[in-house]
Amino acid sequence: MDAHSFSCKPDENATFSPPAAADLSKYNIVIAYPLCGVFVRKGGKIAIDRDGGLTLGDSHYPSGDFCVDTFLENGLRKQEVLSCHRPSKWIRVRTYLFPACKVISLIFLSITIACHLFVPRLLAHGGLYLMCYAVSLFTAFSTGFSVNVFHEHLGDSSCVNLAIAMQFGFIATFFWLNVMCFETWRKIRGLAYQKRSRPFPSGIYVLYGWGAPSCICTITIVMQHLAPDNVWGVIKPYIGISRCWFREDIGLLLYFYGPISFAATCSSVFIVLTFINYKTILRNFMTMSGPQRERDREVEPDKKARPPKLPPVQITGPIQDFSTKMKLFSLMVFCWITEILSWKIPPMELWALTDTLNSLQGLFIFIIFLLNRHKRALVEEKFPLPFNLARRCQKLMGKAAPNQSKGSSESIPHEKDNNSTVSSVSMDLPKTTATS
Question: What is the torsional sign of CA 262, 264, 270, 272?
Answer without folding.
Answer: negative
